[in-house]
Amino acid sequence: MRKKLFSQLWIYFVAITFLMMVIVLSVFVGLLFMINHFQLLAPEREGHLFPFYFIIFLSLVIGAALSVFVGKRILQPIGDLRQAMSKVAKGDFAIQLKEQQQMEDVKELYHDFNVMVKELSSIETLRNDFVSTVSHEFKTPIATIKGYVQLLQNEALSPEERQIYLERMLDGTQQLTHLTDNILKLSKLENQGLGLDFQPFRLDEQIREVILFLQPKWEQLNLTLDLDLPRTDYYGNEEFLYQVWLNLMDNAIKYSPKNSNIYVHLKNEETGQVLTISDEGIGMTKEVADRIFDKFYQSDTSRKTKGNGLGLALAKQIVELHHGTIKVNSSLNKGSNFKIFLPNNLKTS
């Protein structure tokens, strides 16, 4: 693409330069013919130098007109691109160039620039979210642990109080461990990519294991689980897919009110497996749903609910590495529905 772009621009520039030379040469040949035909350079004639002045003036006009033309068609787009790049260098990622250009090369160049700026904007948003989330997620448990360490230095504490403080310190360390584990898992997925180890296993049994693991949570809220999990043999990465169901089920429980329902239905289709996990919880707006799979994104900026904005991003990454899709359909205060599709053709892909 780059060689093609440079080659087309070079041809365009050579064509314009050649056209300029032809026009200037034609004008001068025509003027010389007129001078010779009407004998305008005869010394005996009054004002015989006027043709020279006229030729000089006409040359300046033609040169200026062609310069403006070349500048507008070639140099001006380059100048606009330079100014836009200067704004991006200063941190302005909202700048976009108009792609409606007559030159196809300039149109492609502007399109690539706009795509680049959008990607940089996404990276900047991710960086800001990362700094905000990680700093908060690390700061809170560390401060908690520090506080309880100081309290434990009090020799007058009863054994019961000492045990409570130790348990709270343990909660803080588990919170830090969960955050670092998710960051490492995301990094591993992004770096290893398709190097995951795929093996056959029972998908329905794995989902049941997740539900049993989370039983204390959904029993505490008196939630009713509507399960439809037919026998399903699947070929994929068992370890990472377990994390997908764990994150989705944990979210469904966390955002569900007491005495509500959660639906977990697995359907075997000809092309793959479709799992839907629905709840009757708080739901989310369209704006939140559009960003729910972004890394470190949390709709609850007050951090009243536990989490670090990595669970759904991790789930999406794992599903996509299985060539599948994960989608969410949600309405505020009406619950959320997550639909995951996993294809059957991983052995041959």
Largest sheet: 5 strands, mixed
How many beta-strand segments?
7
Q: Please, what is the average pLDDT?
A: 77
End-to-end distance, in Å?
28 Å
- Principal-axes geometry comes out as elongated
Rg for CA atoms:
35 Å
- The fraction of residues assigned to DSSP E strands is 5-15%
- Helix and strand content put the structural class at alpha+beta
Give the assembly state of these chains.
Answer: single chain
**From the coordinates shown, what is the CATH architecture of the largest domain?**
2-Layer Sandwich
CATH superfamily of the largest domain: Histidine kinase-like ATPase, C-terminal domain
User: How many domain regions?
Assistant: 3
- Residues in helices, as a percent range: 55-70%
Organism: Enterococcus malodoratus ATCC 43197
GO molecular function, one term: phosphorelay sensor kinase activity
Catalytic activity: ATP + protein L-histidine = ADP + protein N-phospho-L-histidine
Subcellular location: Membrane
Describe the structure.
The chain has 349 residues and is an alpha+beta fold. It has three domains: 2-41 and 48-89, no CATH class; 133-193, Orthogonal Bundle (Helix Hairpins); 198-343, 2-Layer Sandwich (Heat Shock Protein 90), CATH 3.30.565. 60% of the residues lie in helices and 13% in strands. The strands form two sheets. It has a five-stranded mixed beta sheet with strand order 2-4-5-7-6, covered by helices on one side. Strands 1-3 form a two-stranded antiparallel ribbon. Strand 6 (325-331) and strand 7 form a beta hairpin. It is elongated and about 120 Å long. Its main location: membrane. It is found in: Membrane.
